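fyi for ur records
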Amino acid sequence: METHDDIPTTNEELAGHPTVFAPGLLTGKVVVVSGGGSGIGRATAWLAARLGASVVICGRNEDKLVAVVDALREREFDVDFEPVDIRDRGWIDRSAETIWGRFGQVDLLINSAGGQFPQAAIDFSDKGWNTVINTNLNGTWGMMQAHARKWREAGQPGSIVNIVVVPRGLHGVAHTVAARAGVIAVSQAVAVEWAPFNIRVNCIAPGAIKTEGWAVYSEAARSKYPLTNPMQKVGSPWQIAEAAVFIGGPPGGYINGEVLTIDGAGQHWGEIWTTGKPEYFADATRRLDTPAAPSPPEQTG
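which gave:
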């Protein structure tokens, strides 16, 4: 069973975790990370700061943002935070004004903010459905458009990386699957429309990645996550952060309109049941794996 020992989870571990990138890769760049108070967003903020960027982390929970910023500033990184509820378009626009007013530029926007809860889709309430759609689809779109307008106005190039979900095999969170599919579709559409403004737009689709967000899922469901891909392990937020810097930063300058799936080949082999695998499907799997009874010997004579 996967032990997760190689997955950095604390600010101290993120401060020293090895990276494939050279120091100074992002010197002079400004990186904005939504959902920067935890999980993939926090790991991305640490990586970008360590590579020389000025980093702004955004999110609803100011206490989380302050904790990350304080830890980064202790190591003399140039980092700030901007509280924003991405479900509120007015708040998004105000935050963009503040960030651009301070730095005069943004080079990379990483949309990592989002949220969902495991539940059978047939039991979704209107409120639950709309909350996830407003956060994961509308909120991501608001961040994209607000900063794209700033890039157009300033005549500066820009890059967006949207964190979505694996495109298949993910069950029990149909609302976020729908929302993230919308993000992928609009990202691919505007990758074409915004190319004349020198704005690139890409997505990263993680599979089973161990973050603090796992707490919303049952222990029974989490214990199966390493089994959802042929590599038999889960991924790290740091791995997603490095992919985001690659595809969204200078190394990925010719990558546009792509979805990079990082799931250990799970999309080709496994399934992720966030609610636990229902008995109907578990029974089908057992029957599928049961060796067929041998055929009776052919009668002769």
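The first helix runs from residue 11 to 16. thats all i got for now
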